[in-house]
Amino acid sequence: MECLLGLLKVKVVRGVNLAICDPLTHSSDPYVVLRLGQQKVKSSIKYHTINPEWNEELTLSITNMMHPVKIELFDHDTFTKDDSMGDAEFCILDFVEIAKRDLSDVPDGTVMKTIHPEKANCFATESHITWKDGKISQDIVLKLRNTETGELVLHLHWVNIPGVAR
């Protein structure tokens, strides 16, 4: 059995300029699926939009920081299989390593690391892992793959589990 390192709270903030899957209404009915290892969590469906606002927090238990968080967007369909609207993934290794440090002497608002967009990741913009208000957090904008258009905005923060060693 793998040891629980902590909880990753993923706030699915919004989608930007997502693919149009319903040509008659020029919109989609998007929802987000996050996967990490055997875990799978889903957002609610936002109807008739290509710029959905979710602001929903989904929680993943972290037992292995080497696995990436995989994201899929789908268009909800009532009578047929849901359409894929793209996918993305991001690595949590740097985030978890920083979260597991003793940061009690680090000044509030310190940027602990900056991650730049590159071929090896799905980042659309620079992303900063920050120590603020006693929490490690990160704002991420991901460019969706396997689709013509779309970005997904996420906010991450770490929750330590009492009794789990840093």
UniProtKB/TrEMBL annotation:
Q: Which GO terms describe its molecular function?
A: GTPase activator activity; lipid binding; metal ion binding
Cellular localization per UniProt: Cell membrane; Nucleus
Annotated InterPro entries: C2_dom, C2_domain_sf, CAR1-11
* CC per GO annotation: nucleus; plasma membrane
* The organism's place on the tree of life at top rank: Eukaryota
Annotated GO biological process? abscisic acid-activated signaling pathway
Family annotation (PROSITE patterns): C2
The UniProt entry, under CDD domains, shows: C2_ArfGAP
C2 domain sequence ranges: 1-108
Pfam families (alphabetical): C2
Which key words tag this protein in UniProt? Abscisic acid signaling pathway, Calcium, Cell membrane, GTPase activation, Lipid-binding, Membrane, Metal-binding, Nucleus
The family annotation for this protein states: Belongs to the plant CAR protein family.
Which PANTHER family is this protein grouped with? OS07G0501700 PROTEIN, PROTEIN C2-DOMAIN ABA-RELATED 4
Q: What is the name attached to this protein's record?
A: C2 domain-containing protein
According to its UniProt entry, this protein's organism is: Setaria viridis
Q: Recall the taxonomic lineage recorded for the source organism.
A: Eukaryota, Viridiplantae, Streptophyta, Embryophyta, Tracheophyta
